[in-house]
Design goal:
The chain is α/β, with parallel strands linked by helices. It contains six helices and twelve strands.
């Protein structure tokens, strides 16, 4: 992540998100004024701030759900209104977005991440099911494929949502309060997974979180940037021999009985 004054031309420092002079208001209520920052390739950016500071609004602006009053936001160098490569972006919502009565299995939820404009009404085939199985196995929930999403624990549901976001091997992963409402053990396991992915995958992370303690453990205690109450904590991962890795399957290792297990276990 950088502010406009910081220019870097090193490998893996291309801008993934560029926010330039953005202002936004809900009616008479100003949320942002002249907000500028960049998220660079292989950054892990943690965003914190008090309720009402505009964290969720920021995510909505970045993915084009709302438009700024002034300024410009670019994704991978393209202004958001002209951006079309949405398959490059994965999104993990808050677990509260799941309807516990929705009659969908884990496999169906994860495979829905493969649907796009050209596949919405087309039956997904064997390759899609294999990709789904690989994503579930990579997150240690392959055995839950046929379970209904509403019958899982909070931590298991978050793994399902993460698998759904990762099934297309995105270059940018956006997470909105991913550990809200799950117990401390599940939170620790979830953070462990995404820290591993940041280190070993060519994925850039932007995560809004209320869990400042967990962010400090990985990203440090000093924010890289602060604007109107929102703080941005940043860690960059740049291991040259791992920068090209995008496939989830490299995250599996074999146990003594020959079965594959997630390498973060």
């Amino acid at each position: 992540m950088s502010t406009p004054a910081e220019g870097r031309n090193e490998p893996c420092h291309d801008p993934v998100i560029s926010v330039d002079g953005v202002s936004f208001s809900y009616g008479q209520k100003e949320v942002f004024r002249d907000l500028s920052f960049s998220v660079l390739e292989r950054d892990f950016v943690g965003v914190t701030g008090p309720n009402g500071a505009g964290k969720t609004t920021l995510l909505k602006l970045i993915v084009g759900l709302i438009r700024p009053d002034r300024g410009e936001i670019r994704l991978f160098g393209t202004p958001v209104p002209r951006f079309r490569d949405w398959h490059r972006i994965g999104y993990v919502p808050q677990r509260s977005s799941i309807n516990p009565l929705f009659p969908a299995t884990v496999q169906e939820v994860v495979m829905s991440g493969l649907y796009g404009r050209h596949t919405l009404f087309r039956r997904l085939g064997r390759d899609a099911r294999r990709t789904c199985g690989e994503a579930l196995d990579a997150l240690g929930i392959g055995h839950l494929a046929d379970r209904l999403i509403g019958r899982l624990s909070g931590g298991q549901q978050q793994r399902v949502l993460l698998a759904r976001a990762l099934i297309r091997n995105p270059a940018l992963l956006i997470l909105d309060e991913p550990t809200a409402g799950i117990d401390a053990e599940a939170q620790e396991a979830f953070f462990h997974m995404i820290r591993h992915m940041h280190t070993h995958h060519n994925i850039t992370f932007l995560m809004v979180s209320h869990d400042v303690g967990m962010l400090h453990q990985y990203l440090g205690r000093e924010p890289r940037h602060e604007h109107q109450g929102i703080r941005f904590y940043v860690r960059h991962s740049h291991d040259p021999e791992e920068c090209a890795e995008t496939d989830l399957i490299h995250s599996l290792k074999r146990s003594r009985n020959g079965r594959e297990q997630p390498c973060w276990n």
